[in-house]
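Record type: monomer structure entry
Structure origin: computed from sequence
Chain ID: A
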Amino acid sequence: MITNEQVISIGRITRTHGKRGEIQCQTSNEYWDNADATFLILSINNILVPFRVLNWRGKGSDSLIFQLDHINDEQSAQQLIGCQAYMLASDLSEEDELLPTWQSLTGYRVLDTDQGELGTIIHVDESTINTLITLDNDLLIPLHEDFIIDIDQENKLLTICLPFLCTAQ
C-alpha cells in the first residue's frame, strides 16, 4: 500500500484528451519532467492508486498529457477527472531531492513566533490552490512560503508567522 509519505504531489487531473483515454494533468511543479517515473499515482476516494504510464508528453508550460495502462477510452479517462496526481518520491531526480516539498513536512512540529508550539503536522492538503496543513489537534493552517520563517529539517520543526496571528514582523 502506498502512503502519503511516499509520494509528492505533481498536480491535478483536469480533463480528458482525445478519444483514446489520455488525460491532462495541470501541474504544480516540474518534478515529473525531471524524473524517471514509471507510475502516476492518483488519489481515488482518498486511496493512492498507481497507474503504469505508457506514454506522456508536455502540453504548454504547466500541463502534461498521460496515457495510462488499462485506461483505453474516453469514458474510463472521464472517471479520473479531479483526482490529485502524485509520483513516488523515490523517483525524484537527484537535483530535485534536495528541495523540500509540502508533503515532506508531515511529522514536523509547527511553532508560531507569537503563539508558540501549535502542534504536529499530520496531513498536507494540496488539492486546491490554497495548501492547508492539518495538525494533530485538528487545527487547519494555510501554508504559504510567505508565512514560513524557518524549516529546521534536522529537528523537524517548521517556524511560521501567520499574518492574522502574529504581531512580530
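Annotation 1: The radius of gyration is 18 Å.
Annotation 2: The first helix runs from residue 31 to 34.
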